[in-house]
Amino acid sequence: MPKAWTRERKREYYYRKAKEEKFRSRAAYKLLQAVKKRRFIKPGDVVVDLGAAPGGWIQASRKIVGDEGFVLGVDVNPIQPIDQPNICILIGDVTDPQTIEQIRELLPRPADAVISDVSPNISGVWELDHARQIDLAQQSLRIATSVLKPKGNLFTKVFQGDMLNNFVREVKQHFAFVKLIKPKASRAKSAELYVLGMNFRQVK
Ligand SMILES: C[S@@+](CC[C@H](N)C(=O)[O-])C[C@H]1O[C@@H](n2cnc3c(N)ncnc32)[C@H](O)[C@@H]1O
Question: Which domain holds residue 19?
Fold first, then answer.
């Protein structure tokens, strides 16, 4: 079977599944698959979702945390309201230092998990896109270390490339357990993968 054909079918599969299950993006399945594997979001958790538009990860994490949990979605672009309690939306830029204070003010308590699918506009130049993505992942790490409770978790998107190892080293300074995850719903050909840091420990 030609690979391009298989890839296209897979994309179509998640696209249709998202439509049927009323998720706003196919990306929702990347999060659900990763959580199924590593359980970094649990019922009752407080979750901060960075780069949340159009809202697939907000819906998916709200499903996991349930009525006792809380999800805050943050994006530079507006997100259409989601008609469910315990979901809050903030228009904000992860590179703006003020965003951390705004997040803190909106959370009922320090977060159990920070998830970030934040992504730059893709230029098609591999090195440039890689560097921009790592920079956004670093901003997500900075936010996570400011809003997470001790033992909280971070799940953040990166692109493969030569700056990845340094970023993983940085994450290891703050989290006891660190893994790279490539969910099935993420296209095999794409450079995208996710860094999971579990058990946040504050660096003194
Ligand atoms: C791949 S999309 C996220 C999809 C989302 N996880 C979902 O399931 O619907 C990446 C998002 O990152 C946002 N973004 C890019 N740069 C940002 C920044 N500096 N601050 C906040 N959001 C940003 C974009 O606006 C875009 O909505």
Answer: 3-200
Single-letter residue type at 153: N
Task: Tell me which residue has its CA closest to atom 20 in ligand 1.
Answer: 93
Contact residues of ligand 1, CB 6 A cut-off: 24-25, 27-28, 51-57, 75-77, 93-95, 117-119
For the beta sheet containing 87-91, the strands, ordered from the edge strand earlier in sequence to the opposite edge, are 87-91, 70-75, 46-50, 111-116, 148-159, 192-200, 175-181
φ, ψ of residue 176 to 5 degrees: the values are -75, -30
Q: How far apart are CA 128 and CA 142, in angstroms?
A: 21
Closest CA to 70 of 58, 87, 83, 56: 87
Does this model's pTM top 0.85?
Answer: yes
Partners of 200 in the β-ladder: 175
- Report the C-alpha gap between 69 and 189 in whole angstroms: 35
Q: List the catalytic residues.
A: 157
Query: Per residue in 108-129, pLDDT tens?
Result: 999 999 999 999 998 989 899 9
The CATH number linked to 147 is 3.40.50.150
Number of domains in the chain: 1
pLDDT digits (tens, 9 = 90+) for 35-77: 999 999 999 999 999 999 999 999 999 999 999 999 999 999 9
